[in-house]
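Run: sequence + Fe4 H S5 -> complex structure.
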Amino acid sequence: MKCRMCGGKAVIKLPAHNIGLCSECLILFLRRRVERTIKRLRLLSPGEKILVAISGGKDSLSLWDLLLELGYEAEGLYIDLGIGDYSQKSEEKAVGFAQKRGVGLQIVRVKEHFRGLGIPEIARRAGRAPCSVCGLVKRYLMNQAGKKGGFDVIATGHNLDDEVSFLLSNLLSWQRESLARQAPSLPDRQSLLRKVKPLVLCSEREMAAYAFVRGIDYILDECPYSQGSTSLRYKSVLNKLEEHSPGTKLHFYQGFLKNRSLLKMTGEEPELHPCEGCGYLTPAQICSFCRLRERVLQKV
Ligand code: Q46
Ligand code: ZN
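>> structure
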């Protein structure tokens, strides 16, 4: 198979685009794709100070690499979730990348906010699933670090597969509010920083290939709590559809982007007020982070 761009020997076939590419051209192809996504969806402007949420996995480290290569000023933020070995190994990968590239990386530790407790203990004490607690804590700490550091925007490494599996799950249960809020860019609102997802049009497989050809050292292990999650189930169903009809995921997501305005009209936006505890915007009197802290720390 020949590379569609240079005619050399292709190392990867991308059935969704009906092309084969060599390593060098794959890098160019994905760089251009991200550049166009940023432009078309108006995700970032030149000169903006970007905080990239780094998990130590292929997507976030590749996103960081791509933004730097595209000339953006991008610093990393690693949140230590306190999930044993997994967190330790992920941190090593994040630190390794930052050192190799000579770029800034902030590290925020969940345990410092919860008197020594990590996500597994917080979840147990709160009587909730680890992922629901983790999502809430990560969103809050990410925003706090971004605000404190004077960043304009937070970028996350959600890829096409993440977005379509979330979209499918939202559609299957007709989560109208969630659908209305699902977007590649969430605008800033007072205490909430703007958030963008520049990899929404790049598949998981493409990002893994990018990380490999760029020599990015990332954590291969998945978080122990991701086993058996519904998002993995949806991803596997979507992979079967993709195998049968290449391009299905991209088509599904691009169709969603085109029709989002219809959903916006039906999604009810809750009114937000500053939290009485910390000032973070919330539909309630006290934000869910402060409520979680109060509940969990009472039991320490
Ligand atoms: S890190 Fe956190 Fe994920 Fe682990 S506990 Fe769940 S949400 S699976 S992205
Ligand atoms: Zn609060």
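>> summary
The CA atoms of residues 57 and 220 lie 7 Å apart. DSSP finds twelve helices and ten strands in the chain.
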